[in-house]
Amino acid sequence: ILQGISSVSRDRPIGAVQALDGVVSGFGRVSTSIPIGLTAILGGGGRARRAVADLFRDAGNTGPETALSRWWNGTDGETLDGSLRRAIDAVAESRGASLVDDALESLGATIQPEMAASSTQNRLRRTEGINPDQVREEFNMAQRELLARRADVTEVEGDLEAATMDWLRERQDAETTLFAYRDRARELRRRIRGMEARGPEAPCPTCGRILDSHYEEVLTGLMEEWESVVQDGTWWRSRWGQLEMKPQHLQDLERTALRLHSAVETGSERLEVLRVRIKELDGVQAAPPHELDDTKGAVAAALIRVRVARIARSKHLLLDRASRFVSRVSGGRVLALTFEDGVVRLQGSDGALTPLSEEDLAVGRIAIRLAVASLVAAQGLCVASLPIEHPFDSLDTEARIRALVLTKQLLNEVPRIVLFSRGDAVDARPELFDYVLEVRDDEAVTGPVLRSASSGPGRIKIRSGSSDTLKRAGFVPTDR
After folding, report:
1. Sheet holding 336-340: strands in order across?
2. Following DSSP, what letter does each residue of 228-251 receive, concatenated?
3. Angle between helices 80-94 and 295-329 (to 10 degrees)
4. What share of the chain is helix, strand, coil (3-state, %, to 5)?
5. Would residue 342 be called left, alpha or beta, if left means φ above 0 and alpha means ψ between -120 and 50 degrees?
6. Cβ of 351: how many Cβ atoms within 10 Å?
7. With bands split at pLDDT 50, 70 and 90, how would you rate the model's confidence at 124?
8. What DSSP assignment string belongs to 101-132?
9. How many CA atoms lie within 13 A of 360 on its CB side?
10. Burial class (CB in 10 A: 0-12, 13-18, 19+), 439
11. Rounded average pLDDT over 283-306
């Protein structure tokens, strides 16, 4: 049955865009490379930016239309429910659902729930004596516990991030101060040796006049200052050594975060088991007794069960990953994404958020899109590039920055990520971007439609006039 059936090609990259070369109607020609990293295409009017985004999507659509290609394209008018349904289809396809669909098509089977009813008697035996209302109550309780654990994770991760930044800042301050003391000690030692070599004929270190009778007084002052610098520098050296290891409270926070993440994983798995149990109980009550006689029908029923299981698993993985991402982007205001009765709900600490603002919808869509990219790449498929467009500009400033930090971390899985935006977040955190292109749509301006702009972290190069300052092996150099 499976002979001649091909699933998603793992050799064909998704969205293989390395350059843009084409004409944007009404604006001009676009010709530029898209380097590896996080690229922003910003500015210009909305129509010009959308036209460049359409050119980007056209360049990435090189294969047949699939669930993955439909997800990669995305649309501005997509609803939150539509985004999640499309995302579930894409994750399921990456996990082999399309192979099952092709097999069913070759059998001439239609995907209907009653075709899988041959296992009704087995399900009846497994669910005998189980109270459906009790299972639903247990499911609701598990859902509340999971939301509470997600809130704890968000709080601890915030404390952990703040404590880590404090430790790194304190360690950097200690290192900088230590090096300053070392340089000062070397300078004082050099002056002392110069004065000792020339005696009373040595010039004053401050005014340059011959010291003569003030020689001993000035030399004693320099020696006392040198000893004080050495003593303080020794303390800073000890302090720097202490800060090399993470402090105990930071290690405790890391262990707490790890334990809470494990609890969230366990809670997610338990919730999914209960969800499947509820569906199984509902299926036992609704499914008519039916037996498939022929071999082909039995195979089709088995394939449908496999397909249902893969889609359920894909939905579970997606909701779990998207819940983590939505919590990070929203700063803990939204704790989870749920999908019940065909409706997506954003869960806060007090339950589902209603009504949903435009920003809430944008947070959910961004989290879903990034979660799919992460899950598909984890399956070994090559997501060569990822466009991010409209929902990003609907976020507030802080949420945009958090979304950019999360997006930057995905570059290990998706080598090219392109953000189409008005540019506010780029102005706030330009160091997060590897490449920035500005859209020029003013008719009075001649030249290319896209123009590169400054981006990325700055680089400062410090050069010393003496090679001694580059040696950090000892605190005080010796002339041996």
Report:
1. 336-340, 343-348, 351-352
2. HHHHHHHHHHHHHHHTTSPPHHHH
3. 120
4. 60, 10, 30
5. left
6. 11
7. very low
8. HHHHHHHT----GGGGGGGHHHHHHHHTT--H
9. 17
10. buried
11. 60
C-alpha distances (whole Å) from 208 to each of 187, 201, 204, 330 are 16, 11, 5, 63
The backbone torsions φ and ψ at residue 420, rounded to the nearest 5 degrees and listed phi first, read: -100, 115
Rounded to an integer, what distance in angstroms lies between the CA atom of residue 57 and that of residue 462?
44
Sheet containing 416-421: order of strands? 385-388, 416-421, 37-42, 435-439, 450-453
445-417-156 Cα angle (round to 5): 125
Residue pLDDT, tens place only, 135-163? 788 888 888 888 888 788 878 888 888 88
In terms of DSSP bridges, do strands 385-388 and 416-421 run parallel, antiparallel, or are they unpaired?
parallel
Contacts of 378 (CB under 8 A, 6+ apart): 413
pLDDT at residue 126 in the model = 47
Amino acid letter, residue 302: A
DSSP state of 468: G
Cis upstream peptide for 477 (omega within 30°): no
Greater pLDDT, 95 or 475: 95
Q: Which residue has the tokens 């405790």?
A: 252
**pLDDT tens, residue by residue, 204-240:** 777 777 877 788 888 888 889 899 999 998 999 888 8
> Contact 149/257 with Cβ under 8 angstroms?
no
Residue-wise pLDDT for 42-57, tens only, equals 876 677 888 888 889 8
Instruction: Give per-residue pLDDT as tens, 433-453.
Output: 989 888 876 654 555 677 777
Task: Determine the average pLDDT of the residues in 390-397.
Answer: 85
Tokens in use for 168?
Answer: 């790194």
- Distance (Å, whole) CA 311 – CA 473: 60
Nearest-angstrom CA–CA distance, 413 and 443: 39
Per-residue model confidence (pLDDT) at position 387: 92
Side-chain half-sphere exposure of 130, counting CA atoms within 13 A? 19
Task: Find, among 77, 262, 190, the residue nearest to 469 by Cα.
Answer: 190
